[in-house]
Amino acid sequence: MPARIYHNPNCGTSRNTLAMIQASGETPEIIEYLKTPPAREELLALLAAMNITPRDLLRRKGTPFDELGLDNPALSDDQLINAMLEHPILINRPIVVTHKGARLCRPSELVLDLLDTPVARFVKEDGEEVVWPPKPS
Domain 4-131 - what CATH class? Predict the structure, then answer.
């Protein structure tokens, strides 16, 4: 199973994650989820695979989160999922799925333990260097 990334090319974290996957020798399936949003069943499967709640997957910055009142703790998981389906920008990214599991990769280096042969050194767009595996402190 090739890696799959739910990607937003306008997001630096998403671009770094994709670049780490590619630098590790993999050619992932790229799903630009703002152009091709996941269906309800797919979103539910991703949440289950990541073992997180819909609230954990919500993105606030640059989204209609506040105007929709999504910080209201009384909102159900189903209501939050409905909001994400109606406004895919609310889905935090990047999400990566491999045969090793699924994860919201924030920060981007979280992708590395999902890969079979992760890149040992990587320089992010902002100049931060990532060394894998991390050196003990």
Answer: alpha beta
